[in-house]
Amino acid sequence: MAPVLSKYVSQKNAIIGSAVAGVPLLIFLLKKYALQRKKTVKRRAPENDIKYLIVDKSAETKNANRAHVNGRFLKQLFHILKIIIPGFTSPEFGFLILVAASLMARSYSDIWMIQTGTVVETAIISMNTTLFKKQLLYFFAGMPVISLVNNVLKWSIGELKLRLRTRLSLHLYDEYLRGYTYYKINNLDNRISNPDQLLTADVDKFCDMFTDLYSNICKPILDIVIYVYKLTSTLGFQTPSVMLGYLMVSGFILTYLRRPTGKMTVIEQKLEGEYRYINSRLITNSEEIAFYNGNNREKLTMLASFNKLTDHLRKFLEFKVSMGFLDNIIAKYIATVVGFYAVSIPFMNRNSPLANLSQNERFRNYYTMGRMLVKLAEAIGRLVLAGRDMTRLAGFTARVTEIMTVLSDLNKGHYVRTMLTDNNTLREKKLVPNSGRIITKDNIIKFDKVPLVTPNGDILVEELSFEVTSGMNVLVCGPNGCGKSSLFRILGELWPLFGGTLTKPPKGKLFYIPQKPYMTLGTLRDQVTYPHTKEEMQRRRKTDVDIANHLERVQLSYLLQRDQGWDTVADWMDVLSGGEKQRIAMARLFYHQPQFAILDECTSAVSVDVEGSMYQYCRDVGISLFTVSHRKSLWKHHDYYLQMDGRGLFQFNKIDSDTEEFGS
Fold this sequence. Notes:
Layout: H1 2-6, H2 11-44, H3 57-66, H4 71-84, H5 91-126, H6 129-176, H7 181-187, H8 195-235, H9 238-257, H10 260-284, H11 286-291, H12 295-348, H13 359-411, H14 418-421, H15 424-428, E1 437-440, E2 444-453, E3 459-469, E4 474-477, H16 484-491, E5 501-504, E6 510-513, E7 522-523, H17 524-529, H18 534-539, H19 544-553, E8 569-570, H20 572-575, H21 578-592, E9 596-600, H22 608-621, E10 624-628, E11 640-644, E12 650-654
Helix pairs in contact: 3-10, 4-13, 5-6, 5-8, 5-13, 6-8, 8-10, 8-13, 9-12, 9-13, 10-12, 10-13, 12-13, 19-21
């Protein structure tokens, strides 16, 4: 037996056999090493013991399970497409047509190159110099046109991506920045933890994925139509029908196997958002963390988030590799075998018209049609593989649909918060969000049986009733957590009204200044006129001289000595001190001159004499004040006080000589 077997054993066969036997062994060793390393990391890494919760996962998990290529996905996609492609006359639809036309031109360019190349090679084999030179010149002359087609296609795809992203971003920002929706999505509703991730990265990826998928589907479909027509006219319909039948079968199998891709894509984007959010928390709270020496603890939290992300990405990578293995076999290699079988049908059939041709003619037809069939097989393979991108698109579609749904709900006054739905006390007292009534009226603020309720469902005051008219300054006092900030948030319409009637002036005639004033990105002028622009200031017939007088009143006129005066651009949050920012905020109040102003510890870093002059100016120009402060020096600037004890009771009385003043 040995001599008989030895003739089958060659160096080439030995190498192939060793490779085939070694691949499974290598995979087994790598998996074993990875498993041991994972156990070691889990045993040693302290960040694995870190637990955190950023968002209620029920909504995310629900969406993740729905991220499949099915009827729901198509419904969500068509809803988004109505926004980003509003009509047949829109530029976006025009670019869709341009991309399709460019793809068609590219397919015809491929056919032209196949036919011309075949003639050139025939001339070489037949030693026909005249035909060779003629066709080579013809081939060379067509290159600029083909290059133009390719670059028009590249430009049209890039421009389509930009236009779709612009259209979708503008729509979402219109919803996000309508009224106080941007506040509510971060503070009232807990369905989305990272709206910035959805509004930027996910929108960008959705538009890229959709455009790429559109071009990746259009090109194969056009190729299939063109090559099927060409092949059918020469070889009959039997050959293309075999390929198309294989397309349907393989597409169904791979689409079913790729179903987990949509869920994994949603989870990937969620974990990316969590990781970015934890990094941003470190920046936002860096001072507090530094005082606690909490860098090591924050590092553990950050690594825990990073490990969750990388673990998922690794699982996703392994899934994509395994699917890639099947994709290559089904969409490429088996498709090639099917292609050989399909092209052999007319050539092997002795009753075919090709049987009557000479061997050279049969060879030339096989060479030309074989190339077209290869192109057809490639188109079918690309179309099958496009299902992979469609499954990922389903994940991004679910993400974009989620934020669109939440923004729509918030703009309708509906929000979802887990703690609120479990509060039995609210149900017993029949307190429902947005059940109160708001009346808009100038020169008056009136609370009539308005409950102070937080979005979490905590009842601070069951029924608050008092009335303030223009000219009355009110000092609001009480311990921390008694409801002072809640009162102002309800007054500013940031929080929903759970009952009663609130009478207040329009939004533009009520101004709020917090303890840490906000400094916008822009010029020195923008800091005083915020949120007005320079054009809006001029439209209201106010000049730089007017706002310079306001800076003088808060003793900040020296800021105008900077390089470009009012047009100086700087990072004002860092450039100005705490006291300067508070005085800028008071100058901003003087510029807007509302009917009522809410001052929430907004002069705590300002000297008493400057503070007194600013309060006196407010009284002189008729700005009525609601002030939260612990300074005794401010009592003389107010006529009434509203005191809340933190146990649900309140007092609203006039300040007179017998009133006990408290504070520091």
